[in-house]
Amino acid sequence: MAFNQELEALTKAFSGHGVDEKSLVTILGKWDPLERESFRKNTPHSFIEDHERHFQRWDDHYVRLLKHEFVRFKNAVVLWTMHPWERDARLVKEALKKGPSAYGVLVEVACTRSSEELLGARKAYHSLFDHSIEEDVASHIHGIERKLLVALVSAYRYEGTKVKDETAKSEAKILSNAIKNVHKKPINEDDEVIRILATRSNKHLRAVYKHYKEIAGKNLDEDLDDLRFKETVQCLCTPQIYFSKVLNAALRIDVDKNTKKSLTRVIVTRADIDIKDIKTEYHNLYGVSLPQNIEEVARGNYKDFLLNLIARG
Amino acid sequence: MSTLKVPQSVPSVADDCEQLRKAFAGWGTNEGLIISILAHRNNAQRKLIRETYAQTHGEDLLKALEKELTSDFERLVRLWTLDSTERDATLAHEATQKWTASNKVLVEIACTRSSVQLFSARKAYHALYMKSLEEDVAQHTTGDFRKLLLPLVSSYRYEGDEVNLTLAKTEAKLLHDKITKKAYNDDDLIRIFATRSRAQINATLNHYKDEFGKDINKDLKTDPKDEFLALIRATVKCLIHPEKYFEKVLRLAINGRGTDEGSLTRVVATRAEVDLKIIADEYQRRNSVPLERAVVKDTTGDYEKMLVALLGHE
């Protein structure tokens, strides 16, 4: 390989999700001091030229980011090997620590797991953190989101097939009225809306979703402006669409690190559940296959690991 | 401590079923025989009897009891025979269907059962009623009551002894502030009682007493007619001093004119295998009369006999 090609390959190895360990080993590993200096001079966003003292130093910020990329594979492995209950408990704890921007993860865990899986997460949370999930969610969140989020993590939804269609219809009406009156009463203060979303069974909510469309002409989540309520409805009623959207957002270049982490989280947590359906939905929505997108944007062991997880079963 | 007396050598399940069948046979019912068996079997034994009876005679034992027995005696025997998680689910369901502001059963179940027991009751609720408990509580209760009851029945409290004393201080102060401002339905006040572990709440209330001089329930008694306040006081009592809570329920049910059979039945049936002995001791301490004697004075017939048997006397 000519040096310019090697330069290009190495720059690519460091960009995207994860790092291309193989290229780093074979190319970087054989370069002499002059070649490495050429690399430093030709990648200005990673190195800062000190003109006064005539040397190039690593950009500190970039090195910190790089650390995350090296560790992305390790994190995926650790998360994958974890018992799903510990996984969910730790995801919740981490989201609480990160703050409001990460609360979508709370909605995700509470609304896309089965009742028994969520109970398992609550048990694991006791064991890991000496507190109950609802305790921590309630005491860490002070804003308007608290009501909805505490109710969601406390749910133990009925999972049978029995649905009272009359009730679903009337509850769709309640939601429609609440949404129309949102300027008088914000949706996160509406106890009835929260009651319906946080206590009803999945099957019941899907019936409500259907009736809502018939009444209002649009999908329930489209008519909800509050992000958490929107996510709640999507997770409960159309989870594969929700996950496809999260994945698509994560697979862009130059996303913030929280969004980037959701790639690992979604693939690891859904690989045993519904990754096949998510792949199909992803293709429907974006006209591109999920594995292909991952191939373009992820690197090295991390990439191979993710593709493997998706290809199973 | 339980008051249940199970014989040293228990007859086989098949024998028990046969005897029960005999008790139902022909005209009339042999109530004494029923009491002598069912009132002396524990949860696991009763469950086995119920299963075997259904297999052998093609009928649910509970249905047979319902057919053959009447009134307060029937309700007591039926509630008692139920497995404890189904019993809790049944009581909770009744409470939501006939809910009134003075109904404390939901608080009782949510706060005196362990986290695991409460969750088992929620699971049994799914199977019995094809809904979740929280769905029904949310639908049938309103306002401040719903605000308190929903998180209580949804809780899965940490059950360890670890306590954060700094947090206890902060939360005691918070409670005092809210109570002083009469903000009894405050989000944080409810949050503390609905989510903190028993050990943590205990530490908080101890600190409350040390710092502010009174028991929190004394401060929560500003308006004796306020039913929401009564519910919060019941919550606190159930969490920290369940035996005192149950003693009071019994006292109000038995003492004075008339008898509240519903409450008497419920407390005896739900606590006989748990802590009825402690509750009975508390009753005697508080009323200077043994519980068993007060029950005998206030009830009659087979109902009285069954109660006395579950109290461990006979």
UniProtKB/TrEMBL annotation, chain A:
RNA-binding among keywords: no
SMART domains assigned to the protein according to its UniProt record, in alphabetical order: ANX (SM00335)
Name of the featured protein: Annexin
Keywords carried by this UniProt record: Annexin, Calcium, Calcium/phospholipid-binding, Metal-binding, Repeat
Superkingdom classification of source: Eukaryota
Organism in which the protein naturally occurs: Flemingia macrophylla
GO terms (BP aspect): response to stress
Entry GO MF terms: calcium-dependent phospholipid binding; metal ion binding
Automatic annotation (TrEMBL), chain B:
UniProt keywords, alphabetically: Annexin, Calcium, Calcium/phospholipid-binding, Metal-binding, Repeat
One biological process term in Gene Ontology: response to stress
One GO MF term attached to the UniProt entry: metal ion binding
Residues the record lists as binding Ca(2+) 3: D298
Domain-related comment: A pair of annexin repeats may form one binding site for calcium and phospholipid.
Alphabetized PANTHER family for the sequence: ANNEXIN, ANNEXIN D1
Protein name: Annexin
